[in-house]
Fold each of these.
Amino acid sequence: MKTVKELLSHHFCLWLLALLVANNTTMSTSEEYQTYIIHMDQSYKPASFSTHESWHRSTLASLSSSDTIYDEKTLLYSYNHAMHGFSARLTPSQLSELEKLQAHRATYPESYGKLFTTHTPKFLGLKHSSGIWPTASYGKDVIIGMIDTGIWPESNSFNDKGMSSIPGRWKGICENGTAFSPSLCNLKLIGARSFSKGYQAGGGNISTEFDYDSPRDCTGHGTHTSSTAAGSNVVGAGHFGYAMGTAQGIAPGAHLAMYKVLWAGGESDKSAASDVLAGMDQAIADGVDIISISLGFDEHTPYFNDVIAIASLSAIEKGIIVVCAAGNDGASNSTHNGAPWIITVGAGTVDRSFVGRLTLGNGLTIEGTSYFPLSILIRNAPLYYGENNISKATCAFSSLDPTEVSGKVVLCDYTGSDNSGQMEEVQRAGALGGIFSNDKFILEPEIYSMPALILQSRDGSLVKNYVMSTNSSMVKEMKFVITKLGIKPAPQVTDFSSRGPDPVNPGVLKPDILAPGQDVLAAVRADKPEMDMGMYTLATDYAIYSGTSMAAPHVAGVTALLKAVHQDWSPAAIRSAIMTTASSIDNTYSTITDQATELPATPLEFGAGHINPNKAMDPGLIYDIHFQDYVEFLCGLGYNNKQISAVIRRSQWSCRDNASDLNYPSFVVVVPKASIYPLVMNFTRVVTNIGDDDSIYQAVLDVPSGMRIQTEPNTLSFTGKGQQQGFTLSVEISEIDASVTYGYLKWVDQHNHVVSSPIVAITV
Ligand SMILES: *[C@@H]1O[C@H](CO)[C@@H](O)[C@H](O)[C@H]1NC(C)=O
Ligand SMILES: *[C@@H]1O[C@H](CO)[C@@H](O)[C@H](O)[C@H]1NC(C)=O
Ligand SMILES: *[C@@H]1O[C@H](CO)[C@@H](O)[C@H](O)[C@H]1NC(C)=O
Ligand SMILES: *[C@@H]1O[C@H](CO)[C@@H](O)[C@H](O)[C@H]1NC(C)=O
Ligand SMILES: *[C@@H]1O[C@H](CO)[C@@H](O)[C@H](O)[C@H]1NC(C)=O
Ligand SMILES: *[C@@H]1O[C@H](CO)[C@@H](O)[C@H](O)[C@H]1NC(C)=O
Ligand SMILES: *[C@@H]1O[C@H](CO)[C@@H](O)[C@H](O)[C@H]1NC(C)=O
């Protein structure tokens, strides 16, 4: 189910995009040109071709069925790093000719993706005085590549005061283009490129009305995610006075490179898979350390057809960490980007809220949600409630009489849907302000174009009781622009965050981790009208956005800090550190709750838990995974040779034991519906000691009813750093009545390391 929040979670050009569900272009029978990504086996490249691109061009030129002569426009991109192959415009008969070549490995029809859209560093426990920030020098010398909508380079968040010099290994560039020139890059923003061939080949236009033909950001999304990951410190940032404070990225010392792959174009806002792949290919070639992706394609696509999964494995093989948003579908079985080599991020709330305060004539004071941007005060205004007419009481379309409500604050009954229509009606009728109630739907900040408060429905009833009890109900005072901290409970799993099990492979727990994704303040493009206030449009340099799009760059920033501290850690080791130190407990010391139900959430919603950067720096033990382990994993999935070769981009490999059980820091038992109990599943794992030389770890088990858990051995002794120990975890399920049951394995040593892994049983 899509909530209002999801649809409005991006600005106009983007929320249109959010409605476009990725759909694979079907092959047409007529000889029409379509874009295909062609995966080739590079071992077939004749030595006579000096580059892959010349081989690709020659292959295309040789297609005999071509009814038009091969021209420069046929080939869109030649890929060499994320995948070997190219994207091209082809007719169906040309495609079938290509597919007959021995060098052909796989075909992916073009598809289109969607986006998943300054207090958060403090909420994550980041401090200047101690912990990972100073230890990591704020992410110095690490390069984060953003695959997104572009960047607004003039934003103060990308100033390079105090930044270290550009690492010598960097090969990226800053492109010239519309309203963009290489001189806009600096020591913070060290690369900026754009990829639009696939978008344009698919009929998309880059018109000046909607977007810039350059890495410049039209929508604000890429500027927001980039400044969240690695924005410099900016004092005095706020969203029209809300959330005022110092805006800073999670890794303010890290360098940024933007790869623009999403294009806004009125009715054809799109990100084409061929462009996303080109952006990732370039990021790998340029030498980024981390790739952050806040967009995704159809979540049901198996790895061998998923270009983000394939390109990410190629990145991982080169030691590049890939962090992706899990999606904003809010439903179970809907996580995107869940390949086990990717860090998949869900969105949590933070302990901050934006409120307005209402005092009634009887002295009752109530707070409600408001993002109304002006700090005006309403005093001694009559309160209007259309109590004898249901249309008026619910502020239905065109129901209010301007002569009745003018100069008054209007109370509207809850109707079960969101309040945006009511707000429009109250504003149309010329009232002074509005009081609404809702427990379910949250409106995006830019909808609050009038003095409006949204109360919890029980508070709304209090106001209604007051109105009914007197003939002269009054609002004594209504005040706006109040930011409150310390809200409890926090974090919660946001209602829009995509939940597991992963639709492609329920056997690996996804999402991996929860990070702040609601009401995140970060930089946007500065000149864009963010709010329509009737007579005025207001623009802001910093804005509050929500989405798993916002959560992923928080984790990308944390991985940059970890990379700065532990340059030798593999992407899997960094993910392990983040997962095994995460917390499933909120600020009321209870299990993190689900915002949608207010009930305790499970690892299917929060993964290993909420990210804790300071602890991740010193996890004690690491569950590492090597490239060959992923190959064994793919063999264990029962993929055929062609499918495996598509994912690992090789024609030769061997599988020793077809182990679909990866050395993952979480455990999932998939229980088929008609199972015979008890059901036993054994997992084997190997942990590496990266903590103190002399450490003795004891297994502490947190066992739910219906499950029995054993480890063999249950003590792991280490005498030095880098030592490895294996263990078996045996899970016996005697019954399972809920759709999900879970416990924890915690390895605890004498130096306060707690290495925690969720053990989850799901029925499918
Ligand atoms: C940079 O791009 C702009 C706009 O496309 C163009 O007018 C200008 O000539 C370009 N400059 C260079 C040096 O290519
Ligand atoms: C792109 O622009 C061309 C020329 O302005 C126009 O004919 C075409 O309809 C546009 N395509 C889309 C998809 O907007
Ligand atoms: C209620 O108000 C609406 C809109 O102002 C009006 O059309 C309708 O006649 C009213 N109904 C009653 C029963 O008065
Ligand atoms: C409101 O006014 C009406 C008519 O003047 C009167 O009958 C009623 O008692 C008053 N109600 C209250 C709660 O004062
Ligand atoms: C999840 O989605 C997949 C793919 O659509 C489907 O095959 C599977 O049955 C779903 N699983 C659950 C638990 O709903
Ligand atoms: C792995 O699976 C493949 C295909 O099912 C099979 O041919 C091969 O013998 C298996 N290897 C091992 C070591 O089990
Ligand atoms: C699973 O582990 C348990 C406990 O270590 C052991 O008794 C059992 O034989 C194992 N089962 C399999 C199938 O390996």
Amino acid sequence: MSAPDWDALLAADRRHVWHPYGPMPGLAAPLPVVAAQGVRLTLADGRELIDAMSSWWSVIHGHRHPEIVAAVEAQLHTLPHVMFGGLTHEPAITLAQRLVAMAPDGLEHVFFADSGSVSVEVALKMAIQVAAGRGEPGRTRVLALRGAYHGDTFGAMSVTDPVSGMHAMFAGALPAQVFVDAPPMSTEGPADPAWVALVERELSAHADELAAVIIEPTLQGAGGMRPYAPAYVVALRELCDRHGLLLIADEIATGFGRTGPLFATGGAGVTPDILCVGKALTGGTMTLAATLCTPAVAESIAASPSGALMHGPTFMANPLACAAALASTALLERGDWRDDVPRIERGLTDGLDGARVLPGVADVRVVGAIGVIQLDHAVDVPAASAAAAAHGVWLRPFRDLIYTMPPYVTGDDDLARITAAMTLAAAAA
Ligand SMILES: *Cc1c(COP(=O)(O)O)cnc(C)c1O
């Protein structure tokens, strides 16, 4: 095999291939990646970069973990794919049992979706169908938090922050949801009664229209990397119960140990009615997400006019993805992450402390295996990424945030390199 001509490939990339939130033709040239192993990406020019983003928060066990590779390879040689309508298979059944066992008590049923955004669409459909099943078909709206991010499909966009999200661009095409301010930034302590009262007022004002409340429990991710104390999740659970609303927990970012507990809801002692998981579910091997719900939710959907949950993707419960997820969740069950996440939290806290005094730095915060440097201005993304790459680290800042969500297997030396690169990026941005 002759070496690929990267100049020609990158020219074709620019001409033909969309990148996330990108223009066409593309502006900045993306870095060509030819391989990945553990926490490292290998670029076409032979350089290696630590993947401090876990490839958008998914590769928690590192790239090409041998047990995940073996599981996918074995599945590839037996049943790579089969339709899920009218048929079933062992990887899906075992994975559903595993997720039910891992999730907060009371979530018994699993809908497999092909991406995080789709799992949010399914959650929204569930909530609307539950209302219909309870004889309240007028309840179709959802209360969401400002600063939220729930995905890029239409339903998910509609519950994402109306300003930083894409509401203005798609005005008139999105369902109109109800928004309240997110809780004040915090990691512990009681819920602010003034905030709880504010939410209660909105719930009362829209009592006949609302079906559910949707949150990213304890940490708003792509909307701004803002933590809030578990007491707010408890308070929202109580509010939902009092107002007859479902609580939807989008744990696509927070799930599988990223913030400390296995699930942020479970860590708060709360069972949501509906739970979305994705991102790290397959250890970043391929796309898979799931929407879990309680028996009460399933019963109300059964009582709705259709009598069934009205969703069913072509690649639902793809066996290769289920095999990857089984291997990834087996690694989590073995439990090394319980030591690794607090170890990474300490490493990030120590390593980022020096960035606090840099000019232009507004805040430094660490929650579980998440480290954030917030600037007082928008990040110069090309300059910041280049500074980090020159130090051997892949970072992809956004807005005013330079952050890392490293793989749980990141060693202490690599972690120190990541925090040093973030500090250099902050100085360059
Ligand atoms: C990434 C993310 C999504 C969307 O998941 P995709 O797989 O990108 O569709 C939804 N919610 C949260 C909290 C996320 O972090």
Amino acid sequence: MTALRIAENLQHVRDRIAAAARRSGRSPDEITLVAVTKYVGAAEARALVKAGCHDLGESRPQELWRKAAELTHEAVRWHFIGHLQSNKLARTAPLISWLHSGDSLRLLEAVSAEGAGRGAPISALLEINVSGDATKHGFHPEEIEPLGESLAMFGGIAIRGLMAMAGREGGPDDARRDFARLRKLRDRLQSAWAGRFELKELSMGMSGDYEIAIEEGATFVRVGSALFEGATSDDIRP
Ligand SMILES: *Cc1c(COP(=O)(O)O)cnc(C)c1O
């Protein structure tokens, strides 16, 4: 029952992603759904993979390690989306395809060292605190541009775009404003940093606002609770 419900939820979310893409004149193929599995166990995560979703996201290193170990036989691309402390990096970096939450130069430098060590750059996004929420991690939008030169020295990471969350308090209009801000910042950095980085990706939008994010240009949406509604015994809450 649970696996069936998860497959149905996945289809529902995919349909809404496709509809939001078409509404804004985009192709649904431009958008990757990252299924955030932090509220559930390995069995539910496996049900998602079996239903055809191969991009999974975790915000806590220990959860990622645990699920990655249980899903070694599945084809999973792991996305790390939370705050990553340096002491968890060595064990996390080898498991991930994407780091969404590059939120400090120190972290990005350490990730780069890992990427250089394994001989293949790790794809990374720069997390930006667009809402100005004091509890959120990420670079301040105004501080990022001068960092281009430092970032360009980190040969073990490939910086491919920006990531943000909408402010916790606001409604849909505030979310749209935050997402539009991220897109405009990306456009600005893309020209300021021309030739250094290709900033194609925008990781923005969660269960409550992923359709708005797609209308504003998201290429990754990170969706958790909407995929597991009615599928676990516990009430899943963000
Ligand atoms: C938990 C989480 C999500 C998913 O949240 P839902 O509202 O459950 O979809 C997305 N991004 C980040 C960074 C998260 O921590």
